[in-house]
Amino acid sequence: MGCIASSQRVDVTTMPNTSSWQVDTGKETVLIALVRLDQDIASSEKLHPAQRLAVVSAELQSIQQEIKEFEEMTSPVANAESYAKTMHQIFVNLDLYRRPMLASENEDFVANVNRKEMRKLELIWLRVREKELQSEKRSLHAQLLRIRTMYIQLQQLLSCLWSENQRPEIPLEVACERAIAFRDALASVSARLRAAAESAHTALKLLDDALPAWKLTTVGKSGWERTRACSDACRLLVHARCGERGARRVLVATAAPRAARALRLALDYAFTDTMHDYKYQRATEAFLQFKEALVQLVNSIHQVILNNVENLAVAEKELMENRRKLRAARVNDIVKRGLADLKYESSTLTSLKITPRQ
């Protein structure tokens, strides 16, 4: 257990040279330092930053690839108001407010314009999400650097106190390494599931906000009010679809469900569908079916998370017990050898390292 587990070795910034024990420890003894480092490592790993970083990095890479594809053909709108104004101008130019029967004849043209505007909204969402992930990635890097520093310090302390084949309870070290590997495997699954659940929950919230706005599209007093309500609903639904796609991205489920495909088509024709009762009802049903699919996705993820949490708790408990036993064995050996009061400082540890150990 003297070093970081292989599953936790992720690409991070190069560590500074810590071989000289440049730590302001005051009067800390090697006994206290060993216990402190071991407990700090265990505490820092409770939130599984390495596993979370793997999920964040994968999602960030996928989003950045999507952004490149979008930027080849899409330039973002300045704000949400531009979307409503663009669609309003189309309706004015085609005289659809005064002659709603023309909506059916021009629905493909309006849908094409709307589709391009919604791609701009998707690009905005992707860029916001990219910034969020980049910020979290930097924070996780900092956490992992701290953990790696503590692992290096612990390894150096162990190498000063014992040679490789003289450490107490070597079988316990092996047991700890196995427990860490098992814990990390479960934590990787947990991090992926929790990220997917978070994206799906966000999508559900956006959808719940969109449905009231969608209802306003048929009761607005003016054409502008109805178009503005429709643009608000479409913007929220586009972002909800992005959230649902984000959940599938994390779960590596590339195929979109039927409800998501139906939603996309309904969004394309949303503005002209509001002018016909039966088409409006059909679009509303597509939105509700998408919500039902999201609820099913969330429930499925939660079911797997519950099983994972139970297994992860058992693994954490086993690892904690193994670490406690190994720490106690090391402490007892230090006390037995009369090194309990040895100061945790560079000069003392260097002299101890070159002194033959009994």
TrEMBL record:
Q: Taxonomically, which superkingdom?
A: Eukaryota
For this record, the Gene Ontology CC terms, alphabetical, are: cilium
Name of the featured protein: Uncharacterized protein LOC113396965
Organism whose genome encodes this protein? Vanessa tameamea
